[in-house]
Amino acid sequence: MSARTAERWLTWLIAIGGPLIVTAVLVRFSHQTQRDYVFIYLGLVAVVGVIRGLWPALLCAAISFLCVDWFFVQPLNTFTIADEQDIVNLLAFLAVAGVVGLLASRRRQGLLQSEALARQLQEANTELIRLNKEQAEAASSALRLARSEQQIKALQEADRLRRDLLANVSHELRTPLGTILTESTDPSNAETPAEARRTLQTIAAEGRRLKALVDDMLDMAVIESGALELDLVSLDIGDAIFAATERLHRASPDRKIDWNADGAHLAVFADWDRLGQILDNLLSNADRFAPRETPLVVRVSRETPGLVTIRVIDHGPGVPRELRERIFERFFRGDGDGKAGSTGLGLAIVRGLVEAHAGSVAVEDGTEPGAVFRFTLPEAPAA
Fold it and tell me: Is this model's pTM higher than 0.70 or not?
């Protein structure tokens, strides 16, 4: 038997047995006006109505009226309505039972609805907790999956870069080493002093090319490992440009360089050697691509507060838009970038050094054919 069924049976037993128990107690006492016992029964009916509702209260009222009429109303032991008081008692029982029972029934109905609503809210809350937990577990799984995918992509990219690096390094080293070995071990190259001198010049040139490659690779390794150390001081950007043009003229004495010395005297916060390396790589890159009769242009300006902007401009073929990001990758070479002296690391080193100075580097659109390389450096505070 369920708890609800047992509760219903208990309700009806109280409605029936309550008046009988009260009667069994009251018949043992004598009272001059035994009709006054009706108020005790009315109280019992009211209690049953409040606790159990309308129909149990009506049943309790009917049984109470019968008990009062049988045991306490003259003539005793009969269900005779002798006078108007008996009718009043009956109506009082029914009225109390009806009013109290009806009010109690509504109260009980509201209470049951409240309990049902509370159960629904609790079930809904439990369901929300379950859904939130499942959603959190799903989000956590998705996050772990995304991280795993990122790690896999990072490992794949690292493996690709490693293989590309090994392939490029082996290719770049093989050419000068092969030339040096050929020129130094071929007996026919030393027949005359002129041929011997030419051989030595070739070996020296390939040795310099090999040294440049090794130096660039070491610089790239230092930059990518985050171990680059800068000696930052306040220096004149015009002095750095002048020194870089002098170094370029040693390799390309006929190359004209157009720059405004008076307008370039701006103070920047930089490392002198690394700034010279940035300018050397950009000027050397422009020198390889620009026609011999065209000048290289260097412009210095203050366009952004706290930054000095330097542009290196050539009149070569320019850089296609789709390659303007890739040219700063290691060993990337565009069309015509296979000339002697190019290691494929110059622009990657430029980006690493500029960013180490808290600046930026990019390729811009120019007003004339050619490439415009722009980089920024932090401006030194006024003395």
Answer: no
